[in-house]
C-alpha cells in the first residue's frame, strides 16, 4: 500500500492497523524522517479551507473532504434511531393538544411535560424543575450549574455597571448593605448580555439585552439582586417588584442567557477543538499516541459545523424560527465571540477560567455551593489522572516531551497556519502536555454537556421559565398582568411550541445512556486501546470505574431537609458520566 493510500484509508474509516506494533513517539531523527513522508502526504491532501458556520478554518482538500464526509456519515448513522424517538415524541405531543388547555396561564405550561417526551427524556425534567421553577434561588443557582459561563464576581475595584437605589437593595437583601458595600465585600456578581442588543432580529419575536446582579446573602446563599433590560425604557427589576413583573424579568434574562449559552458553546467547545485537531492531523504521525487519543476525543467532530449551518443558521431554520436574533446574526455572533476571546485555548482551562471570573479563589467569600465546579472537577480530575498515566507511559521525562518533533510541530502549526488562538506555543513538559490534552477532553465532555445535549430538555430549556424568545415586545412599564402572554403560544402559524420542542429534543441523546458511547468509556475503546500499552489500559479502566462510582453518587442525589441539592432547589444530573456522551454532539 502506498503511504498516500494508507493515509486516505485511515482518514476514511478512522481505524488504524497498528495494534501489532503499537503507538510510538518518534524514535530519533531517522524515524522522524520515515514518519515525515506519510505526514507530508497528509499535509498535501488535508488543507485549511474557509470557515463553515462561522469561527475558525475548516478542512478542505481531498483528504479534508473525505474526513468531513466520514464524520457526517458516522454521525448520521448513529443519530438515525434517535431521530425516530424524536419523531415519536413529537407525534404524541402534537396529538395531545387538549392536554395543554390552551397554554393561556403560566402554570399551564407545566402540562407540556405530563406524560410527554418519554422517549427522548426517559427520566423527565430534572427533579425540582416542575415544582420549584419560580423560586429566586432556582434562577440564581442555574448560573452556577446548568448555565455557568456567563456570571462573574465583580472585582472590588470595579465601577458599578448600573445603580440600584439603596432602599431597594436593602429591601432585597434584608440588610443595611448598599450595592457599593456588597462590591467592596466581594459579594457582588454580574452577568452581561448587552452585546445581544445590536444584532438583526427575527420577526414577531422579542428580547431584552439584560445585565444582572447576583450576590452572596448574609446566610451565604447565591441570589439575584437586579435585572436591567437595556432596551426601551431600560427598566431595572428586582425581587421586590410585583411577582409577575419580577418573573418576566427573570424570563427576559433567561432568554438572553439561553441564546448566549447556545452560541457560546459552539465557539468555546466545537470550534476550539476543531482547529486543534486540524493542526494535529497535519503534524502528528498516525503512529503517534496523541494522534490516536485525539482521534478518539474528536469523534464525529467535523460533522457538526455543516449540521449547525443547515439546522441552526440557514434561513428559516432554528434561529430564525425560535430565537430573537436571525440565523445569520447568530452565526456572526458566534464568530465574534470566538475571535473576542472565547476561542482562546489556554485561557479557557477549567480552573483558569473560573479563577478569572472570581468563582473560585475569588476576592471575597467562597461560594457555599457551586454544582458545576464541584461535579465537573470530579470528572476533570479523573481525566487528568488518565492523561498523566498515558503521557508518562510514552515520555519518560520533560526532555522527551521537548525532544518530540511531532508535538512541537503541532504547537507551531496551531499557532501558525491554523491560526488557533492561545494554543501553547511549544510543549515544555509532561505537565504542560497533560494540561492541554485534559483541556480537550474537558471541552468535549464536561463543558459541552453541562450546557447542551440532555441538559436542554431536562432543565435549561424548560418552560415556562426558559423560552428562546419573548412573543410580545419588552414592556415599557411595570405592572404587567399576564406573564403567559409573553411566552410561546400553543397555536400560531408556525406551531411555535412544537417546533421548539422538536429542536430541543433533537439534542437529547437517550440512546447513549449506559452504552460504550457514554463518558465513562471515553478512553475504553477497543480501537484506541489496541495500539496502546498496559499502563494506558489500566488507566482507562480506572477512569471508567471512577466514572461508574461518580454516576452512582449522582443518581443517589436527593433533596436535603431544606428541599435543596448542592444548594439548589433542583437536582442537576447533566454530568452523569453514564448518560452524557464522551464526545461533542450537535
Ligand atoms: C487491533 O489490531 C489488530 C492487529 O493490527 C487488528 O487485526 C484488529 O482488527 C484491531 N482491533 C480493533 C478493535 O481495532
Ligand atoms: C516533508 O516536507 C517538508 C517541507 O516541505 C520537507 O522539509 C521535508 O523534507 C519533507 N519530509 C519528507 C520525509 O519528505
Ligand atoms: C466583542 O467585543 C466587543 C468589544 O468589547 C463588544 O463590543 C462586542 O459586543 C463583543 N461581541 C460579542 C459577541 O460578545
Ligand atoms: C438569508 O437571509 C439573509 C438576510 O435576510 C439574506 O441576505 C440572504 O440572501 C438569505 N440567504 C438565502 C440563501 O436565501
Ligand atoms: C443505566 O443502568 C443503571 C444501572 O443498571 C440504571 O439504574 C439506569 O436507570 C440506567 N439508565 C438508563 C438511562 O437506562
Ligand atoms: C423542590 O421540589 C421538590 C419536589 O420536586 C421538593 O421536595 C423540595 O422541597 C423543593 N425545594 C424547595 C426549596 O422548595
Ligand atoms: C452529589 C454529588 O455527587 N455531588 C458531588 C459533586 O462533586 C463533589 C466534588 O467531587 C462531591 O463532593 C459531591 O459529593
Ligand atoms: Fe454542540
Automatic annotation (TrEMBL):
Q: Which UniProt keywords apply?
A: Dioxygenase, Metal-binding, Oxidoreductase, Signal
The record's listing under PROSITE patterns reads:
LIPOXYGENASE_3 (PS51393)
Gene3D superfamilies named among the record's database cross-references: 3.10.450.60, Lipoxygenase-1, Domain 5
Q: Name one GO molecular function term.
A: linoleate 11-lipoxygenase activity
> Which GO BP annotation is one of this protein's?
linoleic acid metabolic process
Q: Which InterPro entries match?
A: LipOase, LipOase_C, LipOase_C_sf
Tell me one Pfam family matched here: Lipoxygenase
Q: Which residues form the Lipoxygenase domain?
A: 104-586
Keyword Signal (UniProt): yes
**Signal peptide residues on this chain, from the entry's feature table:** 1-22
**Protein name in the entry:** Manganese lipoxygenase
Amino acid at each position: 500500500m502506498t503511504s498516500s493510500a494508507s493515509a486516505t484509508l485511515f482518514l476514511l474509516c478512522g481505524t488504524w492497523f497498528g495494534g501489532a506494533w503499537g503507538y510510538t513517539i518518534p524514535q530519533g531523527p531517522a524515524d522522524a524522517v520515515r514518519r515525515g513522508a506519510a505526514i507530508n502526504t497528509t499535509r498535501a491532501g488535508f488543507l485549511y479551507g474557509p470557515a463553515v458556520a462561522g469561527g475558525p478554518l475548516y478542512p478542505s482538500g481531498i483528504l479534508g473532504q473525505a474526513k468531513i464526509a466520514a464524520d457526517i456519515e458516522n454521525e448520521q448513522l448513529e443519530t438515525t434511531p434517535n431521530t425516530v424517538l424524536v419523531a415519536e415524541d413529537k407525534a404524541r405531543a402534537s396529538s395531545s393538544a387538549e392536554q395543554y388547555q390552551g397554554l393561556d396561564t403560566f402554570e399551564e405550561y407545566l402540562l407540556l411535560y405530563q406524560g410527554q417526551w418519554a422517549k427522548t427524556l426517559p427520566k423527565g425534567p430534572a427533579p425540582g424543575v416542575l415544582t420549584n421553577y419560580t423560586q429566586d434561588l432556582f434562577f440564581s443557582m442555574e448560573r452556577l450549574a446548568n448555565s455557568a459561563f456567563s456570571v462573574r464576581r465583580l472585582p472590588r475595584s470595579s465601577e458599578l455597571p448600573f445603580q440600584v437605589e439603596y432602599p431597594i437593595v436593602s429591601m432585597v437583601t434584608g440588610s443595611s448593605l448598599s450595592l457599593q458595600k456588597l462590591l467592596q465585600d466581594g459579594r457582588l456578581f454580574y452577568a452581561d448580555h448587552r452585546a445581544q442588543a445590536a444584532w438583526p432580529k427575527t420577526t414577531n419575536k422579542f428580547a431584552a439585552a439584560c445585565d444582572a446582579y447576583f450576590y452572596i446573602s448574609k446566610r451565604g446563599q447565591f441570589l439575584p439582586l437586579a435585572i436591567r433590560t437595556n432596551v426601551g425604557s431600560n427598566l431595572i427589576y428586582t425581587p421586590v417588584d410585583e411577582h409577575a413583573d419580577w418573573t418576566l424579568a427573570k424570563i427576559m434574562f433567561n432568554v438572553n442567557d439561553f441564546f448566549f449559552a447556545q452560541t457560546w458553546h459552539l465557539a468555546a467547545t466545537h470550534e476550539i477543538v476543531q482547529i486543534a485537531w486540524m493542526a494535529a492531523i497535519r503534524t502528528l504521525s498516525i503512529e503517534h499516541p496523541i494522534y490516536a487519543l485525539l482521534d478518539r476525543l474528536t469523534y464525529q467532530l467535523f460533522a457538526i459545523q455543516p449540521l449547525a449551518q443547515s439546522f441552526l443558521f440557514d434561513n428559516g431554520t432554528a434561529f430564525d424560527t425560535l430565537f430573537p436574533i436571525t440565523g445569520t446574526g447568530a452565526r456572526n455572533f458566534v464568530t465574534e465571540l470566538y475571535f473576542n476571546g472565547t476561542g482562546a485555548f489556554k485561557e479557557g482551562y477549567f480552573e483558569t477560567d473560573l479563577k478569572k471570573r472570581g468563582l473560585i479563589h475569588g476576592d471575597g467569600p467562597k461560594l457555599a455551593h457551586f454544582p458545576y465546579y464541584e461535579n465537573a472537577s470530579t470528572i476533570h480530575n479523573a481525566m487528568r489522572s488518565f492523561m498523566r498515566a498515558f503521557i508518562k507511559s510514552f515520555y519518560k521525562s520533560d526532555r522527551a516531551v521537548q525532544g518530540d518533533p511531532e508535538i512541537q510541530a503541532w504547537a507551531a502549526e496551531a499557532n501558525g497556519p491554523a491560526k488557533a488562538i492561545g494554543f501553547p506555543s511549544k510543549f515544555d513538559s509532561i505537565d504542560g502536555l497533560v494540561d492541554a490534552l485534559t483541556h480537550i477532553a474537558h471541552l468535549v465532555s464536561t463543558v459541552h454537556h453541562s450546557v447542551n445535549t440532555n441538559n436542554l430538555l431536562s432543565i435549561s430549556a424548560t418552560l415556562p421559565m426558559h423560552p428562546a424568545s419573548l412573543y410580545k415586545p419588552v414592556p415599557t412599564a411595570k405592572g404587567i398582568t399576564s406573564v403567559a402572554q409573553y411566552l410561546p403560544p400553543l397555536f400560531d402559524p408556525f406551531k411555535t411550541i412544537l417546533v421548539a420542542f422538536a429542536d430541543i429534543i433533537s439534542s437529547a441523546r437517550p440512546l447513549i445512556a449506559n452504552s460504550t458511547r457514554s463518558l465513562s468509556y471515553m478512553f475504553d475503546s477497543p480501537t484506541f486501546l489496541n495500539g496502546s500499552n498496559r499502563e494506558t489500559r489500566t488507566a482507562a479502566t480506572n477512569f471508567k470505574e471512577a466514572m461508574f462510582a461518580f454516576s452512582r453518587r449522582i443518581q443517589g442525589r436527593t433533596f436535603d431537609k431544606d428541599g435543596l441539592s448542592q444548594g439548589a432547589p433542583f437536582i442537576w444530573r447533566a454530568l452523569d458520566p453514564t448518560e452524557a456522551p464522551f464526545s461533542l454532539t450537535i
